Each structure stands twice: as C-alpha cells, then as structure tokens.
Amino acid sequence: MARLLEDKVAVVTGAAHGIGRGHALELARHGAKVVVNDLGTSVRGEGAGRDADEVVELISKSEGVAIADYSDIADEEQARELIERAVERFGRVDVVVNNAGIARDKVVWNMSAADFDAVMRVHVRGSWLLTHFAAQHWRTRSQAGESVTGRIINTTSGAGLNGNFGQSNYATAKAAIVGLTLTTSLELYRYGVTVNAIGPGGMTRLTATMAAGQQSFEPDELSADEFHPMDPAGSSPVVAWLASDEAQHVTGQVIRVIHDKIYLMGGWYEKATVSSDGARWDAATLGRIMATDIFHTRAPGLR
Questions:
Q1: Is the pLDDT of residue 301 over 60?
Q2: Within this chain, do residues 285 and 136 fall inside the same structural domain, yes or no?
Q3: What is the pLDDT, as a whole number, of residue 212?
C-alpha cells in the first residue's frame, strides 16, 4: 500500500474514540507520527481520563509512532502547549485535525446557557485555538524561508449544514466551524497551508445518544478488510488524503463522507434576486414582490 503521509506529524483532537480515533489510526497507517489528543471526558464533556493511551497502544503495536496528550484544547495555555509539545517531540507539526466535540442536546426552550456555552467552547473555541497556534507555527517557518505544506482539517456535520431538532448549540457550533474554515483558508494559503472541513458519518458515542437502541463501535485496527456503512472511520481515508501533499490544491472546501459516498458541498448562493431600481423598499408592497419574485409562491389575494 502506498503511504501518503510518510514522516508527517499530525495532531488529532478527540482521538480516543469514534471518528477521531479512526482518523488517528488512518493517519498512522499512512506513515504519520500522531499526537493522540483526548481529554477523556464523557460525551457531555464531563470528567477526564487517559482514553488516548489505548489508541497509542494500537498504533505502536502496528509499528507506528504516536504519543498521547490529555490537554483541554479549549484552554488557551493547554492548546498552545499541545502544539509546542508536538514540535518539541517531532520537530514540527504538519497536520491538525480538529475533531474534538461534545453533545448536550435539548430543545431550545429547555437548554441552559451553560449547555450552550459548553458545546461552543469545545467545538468552536477549541478548533480556533489549535488553528491559531498551528498558524503561528507555520507562519514562522514560512517567514524563515522554509517550504511549508500545512494542513488543517476541521469537523462539521449535517446538523451544522442543515439544522437538527434539539441541537441548537451543536448545530450552531458546527456551522461556525464552516465559517472558520472558509476564513482561515483565505488567510493561510499564502503560507502553504490548506484548510478544509469534513462532514463525517458513523455510529459514535455522540450519535448513539440521538438514536434510540443504537450502540456505537470503535475503530480498532489500522487496516480493515470489511466495510460497514456506520463505521466511524468511514471518512478517515478522505482525511488522510486531504492531509497529504497530493491535496495542496484543495482548500476552503466542505466535504461530506456518508456511507460509501463523498459529497462536495456548496455554500450559500444567490437563489433569486429582485431589484427596486434604485428606490427604497416599501414594506407595504413587499408581500407581493417577495411571493412572486423571491419565493415563487402565490401571494395572499393574488389572482
């Protein structure tokens, strides 16, 4: 098998379970040295543990190279130290996969501000902080005359792209990550860095909380002979490719990987347009205009 990431150094957050675990194993399978970051919390972001050790053990058994990291990526100092630790151990960072996340689902009238803030903190602040410190690392290297091929791969979801009942915090966070992806792809490309977002599928600890009677399962090998449509590692080969030098031309993209299909997503676009010909809009007459020219429906009273 051709290895796309020989000697690359990758940081994967939320890598002890589910999708992040699949990413860490796949990157290692392609030759990357992997920093397996995970705070070891529950799906609600509570508690702490050393869950990352198991993934490091799996990679090491297959003659890969990995170290465990237990940093809280939403804490500024710990996020900075995570990037610094990777550089100290392996000499540089080439790839950051922002995958860590939690879920605290409730309908908006029952959701507490604390639950909203907790989800935003991990998904958005955590992704931004790792991006921030990795960007500083790559910019410094580039300005010193080094050729840089940095990669940031963020994690969005169907909830962020289409909305999902009972997930106003999670959906908001995942939509924000698309905005982060689009903006930082513009800012960092001059330094040789690409930024993309992946929208993965699979039955993970998080998705199992939303599907009654369903159980999550964990990727546990660096290679798999059988394909399962709900495998949390289903999107990991796409992540490995985006992390490789082959994908230098791909940036600012949102790619969904669901079951056996890859979808290149398109963002907001102008669906319909109407002009006032330079005049100020009159709210009293907008009903007919909006109905016929924008929404293409029959306005009330329209014959």
A1: no
A2: no
A3: 54
| Per-residue model confidence (pLDDT) at position 50 | 86
pTM: 0.91
On whether residue 3 sits in a domain, the answer given is no
E-only strand ranges, 133-290? 150-155, 193-200, 254-258, 261-265
> Which residues constitute the domain of residue 296?
270-303
Residue 24 vs residues 44, 210, 237, 299: alpha-carbon distances, Å: 22, 25, 11, 54
What confidence score (pLDDT) does residue 214 get? 59
Dist. CA 196–CA 133, nearest whole Å: 17
User: H or E stretch including 182?
Assistant: helix 168-188
Residues 242 and 295 in one domain: no
Same domain, 253 and 298: no
**How far is residue 186's CA from residue 109's CA, in Å, rounded to a whole number?**
37
The residues carrying an active-site annotation are 157, 170, 174
pLDDT higher for 38 or 208?
Answer: 38
Whether the Cβ atoms of residue 18 and residue 202 lie closer than 8 Å to each other: yes
* Alpha carbon distance 25, 5 (integer Å): 12
Please tell me the predicted confidence (pLDDT) of residue 152.
98
pLDDT on residue 250: 98
Helix (H/G/I), strand (E/B), else coil: 136: helix
What distance in Å separates the CA atoms of residue 267 and residue 288, rounded to the nearest whole number? 28
Do 194 and 230 fall into the same domain? yes
List Cα–Cα distances, 239 to 23, 74, 118, 264, in angstroms: 7, 22, 26, 14
Q: Are residues 221 and 275 in the same domain?
A: no
Q: Which two tokens stand for residue 127?
A: 């992704």
Whether residue 249 sits in one domain with residue 131 = yes
Nearest to 7 by CA among 303, 294, 175, 245: 245
Q: Which pLDDT belongs to residue 233?
A: 85
Angstrom distances, CA of residue 86 to CA of 90, 273, 275: 6, 50, 54
